[in-house]
Write a structure and sequence with these properties.
The protein is an alpha+beta fold. It has a domain of 57 residues. Strands 1-2-3-4 form a 4-stranded antiparallel sheet, with helices on one face. It starts with a helix and ends in a 15-residue tail after the last strand.
């Protein structure tokens, strides 16, 4: 066997081992996600909270998270005036606070109180 053939054989063996290892890793990840589909979302939320908490003190509750995908849907709402596609909104319902975060620039764009009451001028049933 020539030197060239030995090098080719070594490269093939190393490539096969790397491919087998990465296949096993991703298969295990897939099986974990299959067991708990919410894990990806939970991990994403935890990472987002960790990043935003570096910029401000956040309420001690898990937020609901949304991603801005269409600016037309939030057009005309002052909270979203400086929003961009891809920005994230963290909604803390107990603390009644909303945070608009820009993950690209790692900046908080807006913070506002959350109004969960009726949005029309009509009184609620308890006020009638």
């Amino acid at each position: 066997m020539t030197q060239w053939q030995k090098i080719v054989m070594l490269v093939l063996v190393v490539s096969t081992v790397v491919l087998a290892g990465s296949t096993q890793y991703y298969y295990r990840q897939y099986q974990e996600i299959k067991k708990n589909p919410q894990k990806v979302s939970q991990d994403d939320t935890e990472q987002l909270v960790k990043k935003v908490s570096q910029l401000m003190v956040l309420p001690e509750e898990p937020p609901s998270v949304a991603t801005i995908t269409d600016l037309e849907q939030v057009k005309g709402q002052p909270f979203f005036a400086r929003a961009k596609v891809g920005d994230r909104v963290l909604i803390f319902s107990i603390a009644k606070k909303a945070v608009l975060y820009d993950p690209v620039n790692h900046k908080i764009v807006e913070v506002a109180p959350l109004n969960t009451g009726p949005t029309t001028g009509e009184p609620t049933p308890s006020q009638k």
